[in-house]
Amino acid sequence: MYKEKILNLLRSSCSGFVSGEELARTCGISRTMVWKHIKSLEREGFGIEAVPSQGYKIASLPDILRQGDIKRGLGTRVIGKTVRLLSEVASTNTLAMELAANGAPEGTVVIAETQTGGKGRLGRKWISPKGNLYLSVVLRPKIPMHKAPLITLMGAVASASAIKTTCGLEAGIKWPNDILLSGRKVSGLLTEMSAEQDRIRHIVLGIGVDVNMEMGELPPEVRGLTTTLAAETGAKINRTVLLQQLLRDLERRYRKFLKNDADILEEWKQLDLTIGNRVTVSGAGERVEGLAQGVDNEGRLIVRLEDGTSRTVAAGDVTIIKE
Ligand code: BTN
C-alpha cells in the first residue's frame, strides 16, 4: 500500500523529484521505510534515481503489468472489477475455469505475464513469451447454449476495436476469431464453457494478443504467419493502456450482446475478412471447400460447395484461397 503511494507521488511530481522526507511525511512512515519501498520498486524493475539534495525520481519504467495501474481509471462496472494478475501460470483459461467453478463473480479477469501451457483452438498450444497480453474473462450470460459461440465473435470484435483505438491499426477478423493485421495473426481467442443440460454455468473468454514479444521467441514455422502490434506500428506498445481499452471494449460489447445479439453479428461482419472468398475449412476430421457465403445467427460459417449446396460449419480452421 505504501509502495503504491510512493510510486504515485513520484509519478505525479512536476519536477520528477520528491524528497525522502516528503515521501515519509505524506505516507506517515519513517525514511528508512521509504528507502525499503524504493528498493522494492527497484527489484520490480523501476529505475530510480536518488540525488542527495533533491530526493528520488523515476528514471525508467519496467515493462510489467501492475494491478494498481490496470485498475486506475479503468471505469468498467463488471469486466475487471476483480483482477487476478500473475507473473506466470499454466493457462489463464484453465485458472479462470477453476475460479469460475468455485464461484468467482462475473467479470473476473485472470492475467499473466507468461503462460507455460497456453492453449490455442483445436487442441493447439499458444506460445506465450513475456511482452504480450494473456487474459481470460469469466462470464455468466443467461443465454441459450446454442448462442454461446457468439461470445467468441464478440471478443474478437472487442479485440479489433481496442487495437484500433490504442494503436490506430485496422485489424480484420478471419472466421471465427483470428485477428489479422497485414494478413498475419496478431491475436486469437479461445472460449471454454461449463454447462448442465441446456443451462450455461459459466463461460471463460480467453484472449491472447501479440504485443511486444520478439519474433525469435516463436517457433520458425509460425513466425511468418504471425505479427505483433510493436512490429506493425514500429514502436513499443503500452500494454496497460491496451489492456484497459480491451476490458472497456469487452464490457460495452457484452452489454450490447445481452440486449441484442444481432448487433454484435453486424459489427463482426464489418470487420470480417472471410465472407465472399473461396475457402477451405478444416477441423473435426473433415475438410470443406467452397465459397464463404456468410454467417448464420449463431455465428456458424455458411459455405457454398461446388455442387451448389450449402454447408454450415460450427468450428474449424479457415484458409482463404487467393485467386
Ligand atoms: C487461437 O487462436 O488458437 C486461440 C488462442 C487463445 C490464447 C489465449 S491466451 C489467454 C488464454 N489462455 C489460454 O491458455 N489461451 C487463451
Describe the structure.
Helices cover 33% and strands 28% of the residues. It contains 10 helices and 14 strands. A hairpin with a 2-residue loop joins strand 7 (178-181) and strand 8. The N and C termini lie far apart (59 Å). A 7-stranded mixed sheet has the order 3-4-5-9-8-7-6, with helices on both faces. Helix 2 packs across helix 3, helix 6 crosses helix 10 (261-271) and helix 9 packs across helix 10. It has 323 residues and is of the alpha+beta class. The protein has helices spanning 2-11, 20-27, 31-44, 67-71, 92-101, 149-167, 220-223, 229-233, 239-259, 261-271, and strands at residues 47-51, 55-60, 83-89, 109-115, 133-139, 172-174, 178-181, 184-196, 199-209, 278-283, 286-295, 301-304, 310-313, 317-321. Residues 91-93, 115, 118-121, 124, 126, 134-136, 178, 188-190, 206-208 line the site of biotin (BTN).
SSE order and pairing:
Elements: H1 2-11, H2 20-27, H3 31-44, E1 47-51, E2 55-60, H4 67-71, E3 83-89, H5 92-101, E4 109-115, E5 133-139, H6 149-167, E6 172-174, E7 178-181, E8 184-196, E9 199-209, H7 220-223, H8 229-233, H9 239-259, H10 261-271, E10 278-283, E11 286-295, E12 301-304, E13 310-313, E14 317-321
Parallel strand pairs: 3-4
Antiparallel strand pairs: 1-2, 4-5, 5-9, 6-7, 7-8, 8-9, 10-11, 10-14, 11-12, 12-13
Helix pairs in contact: 1-3, 2-3, 6-9, 6-10, 9-10
Bound molecules: biotin.
Residues 91-93, 115, 118-121, 124, 126, 134-136, 178, 188-190, 206-208 line the site of biotin.
